[in-house]
């Protein structure tokens, strides 16, 4: 009678099971933490939010404005009046299957309660208005990650007891973009969002 050595079958099975379990545990740990709104709920793709400064006396919500007698492109600015909640936005994570906005993950940001005839309302980085500054303007392209759309991708990180907006896209592996936190630049009495201000604008997210 032939004796079958079951060890030959059990050991490889256990090894495959162990490796598979380890892989899924690592993948689970790699999932970034969700960004939360002021109600403690995860910020979601396709849902309208107001971006407002954290704390009182720090100004109002975000909107668009013109600077230096230019109406194209319009810049993303902050209203100085804290009673103004601004224009609501939506976030679109780079992974089209991801519906939760997560920390440090590239995403598009766009104003959704306004229509501008000659421009999209997707945020992008622009150096044309003030060559030495990386301003945040509208007129970007949604989706299509890569070298051609490098200026259209932003992310959110924790900052003290709230969050900050950051420009440091990784949608192009061979590109080396200028990176920095987004703060406020005073331009002829207007509070313009741009990359590089320290400290950054500390923000919270309010579902509409």
UniProtKB/TrEMBL annotation:
This protein's record includes keyword Signal: yes
Organism per entry: Solanum tuberosum
Gene3D superfamilies, per the entry: 2.80.10.50
Keywords: Protease inhibitor, Signal
Signal peptide: 1-28
Family: Belongs to the protease inhibitor I3 (leguminous Kunitz-type inhibitor) family.
Keyword Oxidoreductase (UniProt): no
InterPro entries in alphabetical order: Kunitz_inhibitor_STI-like_sf, Prot_inh_Kunz-lg
Protein name: Miraculin
């Amino acid at each position: 009678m032939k004796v079958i050595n079951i060890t030959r079958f059990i050991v490889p099975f256990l090894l495959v099971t162990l490796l598979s379990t380890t892989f899924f545990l690592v993948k689970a740990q790699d999932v970034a933490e969700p960004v939360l709104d002021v109600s403690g709920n995860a910020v979601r793709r396709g849902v309208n939010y107001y971006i407002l400064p954290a704390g009182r006396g720090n100004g109002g919500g975000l909107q668009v404005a013109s600077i230096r007698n230019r109406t194209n492109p319009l810049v993303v600015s902050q209203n100085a009046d804290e009673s103004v909640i601004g224009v609501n936005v939506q976030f679109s994570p780079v992974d089209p299957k991801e519906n939760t906005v997560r920390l440090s993950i590239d995403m598009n940001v766009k104003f959704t309660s306004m229509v501008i005839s000659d421009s999209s309302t997707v945020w992008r980085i622009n150096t044309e208005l003030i060559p030495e500054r990386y301003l945040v303007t509208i007129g970007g392209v949604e989706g299509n990650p890569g070298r051609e759309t490098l200026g259209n991708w932003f992310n959110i990180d924790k900052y003290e007891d709230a969050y900050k907006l950051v420009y440091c896209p990784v949608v192009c592996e061979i590109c080396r973009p200028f990176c920095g936190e987004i703060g406020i630049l005073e331009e002829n009495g207007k509070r313009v969002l741009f990359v590089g201000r320290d400290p950054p604008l500390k923000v919270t997210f309010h579902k509409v």
